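dumping the sequnces here before i forget
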Amino acid sequence: MNYELLASGFAEVLLNPYNFLFIFIGVTSGIVVGALPGLTATMGVALLIPFTFGLPTIQGLVMLLGIFSGGIYGGSISGILIRTPGTPAAAATLLDGYPLSKQGKAGPAIGIATISSFTGGIMGALIMTFLSPQIARIGLRFGPPEFFALAIFGLTMIISISGKSMLKGFMAALFGLLITTIGFDPISGVPRFYFGNRDLLGGITFIPALIGLFGFAQVFRNIEKMRSNSYKKAVMKKILPRRKELFRLLPTMFKSGFIGTFVGSIPGCGCDIAAFIAYGEAKRSSKHPERFGKGEMKGVAAAESANNGATGGAMIPMLTLGIPGDAVTAVLLGALTIHGFQPGPLLFRDHLDIVYPIFAGMIAVQFVMLIVGLSAARLFAKLIDVDPKVLTPIIFLLCIVGSFSMRFSFFDVGLAIVIGIIAYFMEYYDFSVSPILLALILGPMAEQNLIRSLMISKGDISIFFTRPITVAFFLITLLISISSYIRMKKSQKREMENIKNNSDLLKEM
Amino acid sequence: MNIKKADINTGIGLCVLSVLVWIYAEQYRGKGASEYGPHLFPQFIAICLFACAVILIINAIRNKSTVPEDQINIKGMLRVGAAIFICFIYIVIMQLIGFLVATIIFLFVMMSFVHQKKLTTRIIVSFVVAGSVFLIFSYFLKIPLPEADFTFRY
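..and the predicted 3d for all of it:
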């Protein structure tokens, strides 16, 4: 690494106030787009690329990086406040973010989400700056068997998000996997389970499913429980988390940031997968796994740190190999090409004048995101103070527009409502809906790579047990599954004992 | 319906679903380029789902069902059904009279439906929110929303 050029690249970005102005515009736009249900960071970057055409290259690129990171962070705000993740990457954040919001801790939850996003983002950016070529080489070793093993590893996180019953969690995930088989088969192109409906040929689109599972289902629950009595304003106390709490969460943030960066750097794995894996690990390694899903700050910290760590991670294969790590970096790759640069090994040889400012820009973006996020945390948290009789119809509207906006399709709106109805009833019968989401993310990856691996090995399943990375993933999967199961059983036993003790005490009184 | 019955019914429903998926997926056998055709993955999932559903039924019969927090609220469910009906009417009307006007009406009706008593709040929120969403999506994000003349704005 040429440290002199690195220093001059940092100086070029950090000493020019105009760069900060464009980063600020990018981050703010990203947060707005990310916070609106249905609008992803990918869409945000794609929509705002034309605005960068007239700008100097560095300023245009740092603005796009701002939208990318801001968009991923912004998704957590709506996830925490209204249980509708703005982006798929924030789906794991709402598992604890929304319960915290219901407990009147929306402010601290957003504060932790912001600080965790910053920590994860900084880790991702630093790892990207100093270890890009080394990590890219590991990513290149991934073939179909490794991706299949990774998908199975990701699916073990079902244990962490199953709610009260692991069996029902698995059933929900299997139902989600069945949903992913609707539409064209990814290998042969044969249309499956589309029942003559052309809108289903492309499969169940992810965004309407996401809005249905969380947004519509929540709206239906709100309407069901709506009473005609008057609304009392909640008293909002602290916005920022206490210093002690922050220090308690730092190890989780660092660990999740690292996990996020690594997962994000594997081509094809996005911020959403990274967030779920980090969330599962945080729950598995926690002394109190029973608190997860009920409003545990560590859950928010893990998911947010990982998904923003993955932004830096996803940039690594894009810059070093010209392979986008996820959908957003695919759009960013297009933007770099439009600006006249071809990402890949040659970029590091011929255009270090662009590469190092990108590294510096990614770090500067995290600081701007922290400042904007913390300054606006109180404003965001006030949203929860709006009368539910006003807020519920507005969320209803945003869910409708959000599910429409991806493909401008009313079919998608209908689909989101149907999925919302299913999710609404599922929760009645004690089924957690999060495993469905995880299955929707990982199902296509698992199926494609299973079939590809079997085709490569001509049906010999030993292909999954003879490659080092695959074996490592399967071993980790097995160990995590066993330890999570034992911990979950212990925690359930502890909870039952607590309930029994409490009822005994009540009887004595 | 108690949770034991609910779990048994859900288990039976999912058993039926998995059998149907298995049978339906049979038609894809031999259609792919390789012997691992488009039927393989759905049928594998169907087998797993069937097995889980059978365990759920057995657990329910042996009284090992998990207990849900909420009890079924029929009145509330009817309210949800009515809200979905309003939503479908809104989607149809939106394509006839355009997004902006339909959304103002939708918000006003929905707020009345959930017993928002203050008329001024209902009117102001309907106009401000519908206008803001229209401006953000149409002008800032360039997302075409339905207009009154049966066409889309691009």
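The CA atoms of residues 173 and 436 of chain A lie 5 Å apart.
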